[in-house]
Amino acid sequence: MKKRPRKSMLGILGVFLPAFLGLNFPATAKSDLAIIEQRANHSSGSQQIRTAYQPGGNQTHPITCRNGDAVVEFRHTSSSVSENPGTAVVEVKLTHPVDKTVTIEYAAAGGTASRIAEGTGKDYDLPAGTLVFEPGETTKTIPLTIIHDEVNELDETVEIVLNNPKNAALSGKKTHTLTILDANRKVLANVKDYGAKGDGIAIDKHAVQLAIDKVKNEGGGCVFFPKGVYLVYNLRIIPGITFVGEGRTNTIVKRPDHMEILEGSKYTSNTMFNSYESGYQYSADIDSEPIIFKNITIDGNSNNQPLCNNYSQEHAFTIYLRADSKRRGRINFIIEDCDIIDTVTDGITIDRNVKATIYNCIFRNCFRGSITWNGGYTDTYIKNVDCYGVQADFRDRNNPLGWYVPAISAFHMEMSRKALGYDGSGEGNLQRVKALKVNLSAGGFWITASYGSRIKFYGDSLTINGSFHAQGPACELELKNSNIHNLNRRFYESYINNTGIFKFSRCNFLGQATSLSQKELCIFKILPWPGVNGVFTFDNCIFRGDATLAGFSGPKKGIIIGGTKVSASNSLNFLNNCKVSSKYLDYAIYGGDIYHPAISHVRLIDFEAEINSKGYLLGLNSNTNQTDEANDIGLDNVTFNCRYLAWNYPNRHDKLCNKNMIMKCNNNYISAGNDFAAVNFSGSRIIQGSILGPNTPGIIGDIFKTGNCQYLCTGTGFYSNQLNRQIRAVWVKDKEGR
């Protein structure tokens, strides 16, 4: 009897398991339920796979065993997509299936589109990733998020690259260029189509203005400057236009030589790009579409312009921004990836009613200010900006050319004229600035705001090389993680004056002697003002002086604190490990000046001074009439390697508080005026030494520790700088055992 062939367990399960589970397959499906079989063909090196469920028959997909022959690549090397869809996919293929898992990494590697939310904004999002081809798979896609903005711009590209394949080779088609088509631009005007030459010889002003007017009349778009040098001046611009070149090294827009010849006048008084000409002014109650500059160098050509008499040089602007100050709307302005160089007046002038973004730009040799603010109701965001130049000394005030020279100040804020249309909100005279990662190596930072101005300035990671000058009664300024370099040149000292609220956090201050003719030298100067209630805070800041200080013969002071009237409630605080450090300094803190000797409410908390050992931690002054002004000094956990105190004309109105003060005996030196004992003392100091001598200085309440003994000071002693003799302290053995 012929034996029946044995059914495999898999076959039995294929018949009974569906019924057991209550599954009701069609009869044809049950009979055609395929069983995976692998039939090795050793001669061809291939396999066949039958899928587990294949109605209608056995379908097979060949898989190449020679995995090294498989190639992974982009299906196409280029494609395009509109901004509007929001998503896009780029296809990657494997030339044939393989029996192993294939992986390939991908990433965005370039192009003109941006994936950073700065400047004109983010165009797409594509995190780096890895595609995984399981055995038998031959197609995968890379997803991109396309971000639709409201900016007029050129079509932009994203370059995507493949790399680091595993179990497959990488072909030459490893780069894909995706073009994002702008969805907002109504017209693209190439200036050469309107007659511009771009040869650096012909005046292209009229041709470029024709291109601008074309875009203006069409409702917005781009004015494109191909590679070249374009000579222009007095261009009138409006919102909704993007000025774009082929790159800052390829496209240069330049002021022509000798503008006095073109204008028929001796002095330069024209603007290269002006938003406030008649017929082009923005006047509305909502903010405008942006004016954009991108991938261009703007050259003010200042070396080939006439000398300017007195202040006339201050009115030949480069980019001048202002909207109708009687309305609430502001001009929206963006400049990105541009250079502005050799300007006659300012790089960018921000007057009233402006909202500006300045990103990834370079300013070089811009007279007065790389960026200058002249009016209120403005907001400015600045990031990744470098300002360079040479700061010359001012001329004498009686010079017929004026006392200004082509000097450079990187940031220049002044006047803050009111924007009347928004004055009801209290912001009509307000200037707000946020600056991140800015290098100001050209004259530094100048704020000379007048009374009635309001300034709110926030900066992080700034480098200020030249001078730091800020004054204005209604200023609020905060700097973090920044470096401030004081050159100590005439009119270029670093100081804050007449300022409302000012805070430095984790900042480094460096003092240098570039001029030896100064009467005094310091690392930083703080000048409170009578009647202005200022708050000055330094948190974890370092003040250093370099070796150039050694050549200066006058007094060298770390921080100078100017005096003020007692009617003002100024507060000055050094907190959290601030330090003054330079072996060339005579004083760490020097308070008072010839006009207002006393300083009000100064606190040093967790403070360190490391200066010349014969110098003084504190140098103070008081008013000789003993009525108008008074010092109020508090020291808490202050360490120092120098003498303790030099005080001219102290009096009974002054206050000095010592807390957690531990010092060595050789640092306990006090030189003061006759009335030092009349000062209002509080707290105490702990003085450590081997011998308590008869001339050991002391303040009532001090403790002197020597060996196992300690003594209490019950009578103040010091060296009288008026009598030129020692006034002895009274020390008694401390019976309290403190």
Automatic annotation (TrEMBL):
Family matches, as SMART domains? Calx_beta
What are the Calx-beta domain coordinates in residue numbering? 59-163
| Protein's name according to its UniProt entry | Na-Ca exchanger/integrin-beta4
Q: Name the keywords, alphabetized.
A: Calcium, Integrin, Ion transport, Repeat, Signal, Transport
GO cellular component annotations of the record: membrane
- The domain of life is Bacteria
Among InterPro entries, the record links this protein to: CaCA, CalX-like_sf, Calx_beta, Pectin_lyas_fold, Pectin_lyase_fold/virulence, RHGA/B-epi-like_pectate_lyase
Q: Which organism is it from?
A: Desulfobacca acetoxidans (strain ATCC 700848 / DSM 11109 / ASRB2)
**Protein's GO biological process:** integrin-mediated signaling pathway; metal ion transport
PANTHER family per record: NA_CA-EXCHANGE PROTEIN, ISOFORM G, SODIUM/CALCIUM EXCHANGER
